[in-house]
């Protein structure tokens, strides 16, 4: 991961930001779940563009395995989002154990697909009118 990519991509570190991302769109594969939401322009953050957070629960494995999953995800995120750093979106990736055995290009593809899905604005529910 290059230093310029890490500067352009912010990290989510605080619980309220993780909870806020959970209120947005979701994307699931057998390797990960991704939650994301578009931020409004008036939200003040250190990084006005793309921010992401990683979560890997203790059920997945011991610390060495969880850290390896997070390292693979960080690198895949940096590659998958290149060119999309200006989107004001918060993305949370919940990693699963199958990430350890997945091909790297599959991880990059999953994250790129997730970015397309979670960056769409939520549709407004239209109330149905009865005639």
Give structural attributes.
131 residues; alpha/beta; Ribosomal Protein S5, domain 2; 5-stranded mixed beta sheet; 4 helices; disordered N terminus
Walkthrough of the structure:
By secondary structure, the protein is α/β, with parallel strands linked by helices. The protein has a single domain, classed as Ribosomal Protein S5, domain 2. It has four helices and five strands; from the N terminus they run αβαβββαβα. The chain has a five-stranded mixed beta sheet with strand order 1-4-5-3-2, with helices on both faces. α3 crosses α4. The longest helix has 18 residues. The N terminus is likely disordered.
Sum this structure up briefly.
This protein is α/β, with parallel strands linked by helices.
At the fold tier of CATH, the topology name is Ribosomal Protein S5, domain 2
The shape, in one word, is globular
CATH class type: Alpha Beta
Query: What amount of the residues lies in strands?
Result: 15-25%
Share of helix among residues? Answer: 25-40%
The beta-strand count equals 5
Q: For the largest beta sheet, what order do the strands appear in spatially?
A: 1-4-5-3-2
Secondary structure elements and pairings:
Blueprint: H1 3-8, E1 10-11, H2 15-22, E2 25-28, E3 32-38, E4 51-55, H3 63-80, E5 89-95, H4 104-118
Parallel strand pairs: 1-4, 4-5
Antiparallel strand pairs: 2-3, 3-5
